[in-house]
Amino acid sequence: MANQDKKSSKKGKLGITALALLALAGLGIYQGTGGGLLPGSGSSISQSDNQGQEGEQETKVAEVKVKEDEIYWSEPGQTEEKISQDQLQEKLQAMKEGWQIRLIDNKAIKASFDQVKKAIQDNNIEIVETIEQ
Questions:
Q1: 60-67/126-132 β-pairing
Q2: Which domain holds residue 7?
Q3: What is the C-alpha to C-alpha distance for residues 133 and 76, in angstroms, rounded to an integer?
Q4: Tens digit of pLDDT for each residue in 41-74?
């Protein structure tokens, strides 16, 4: 009989704990914070969109296209130019905050594409999308 009391006591504590967690999660959602049980569930798309609109810097997107083993670079309002790996590295190092890269795979040789992608990542520049043509 004492054994049954211990089991029911453990079940009762577990049930109360689960109920408390659900109540807290529900309270977070009810208050509009979006706070759920999963990590990262407290943020919402609309919040991040508003932050982007209120930010001081406008995000600009440069395009880097890899066609076979050739690299092409273009910025908004400029024509596309063929560049070397060294020139790519110089351009990436000169980029300031607020820039992102759209990486285009135009029948690229895998080693060339991977080398370009690594150079972008090594310079801590965000790749907003990768397009395959």
A1: unpaired
A2: 2-52
A3: 20
A4: 444 444 444 444 445 567 899 999 999 999 999 9
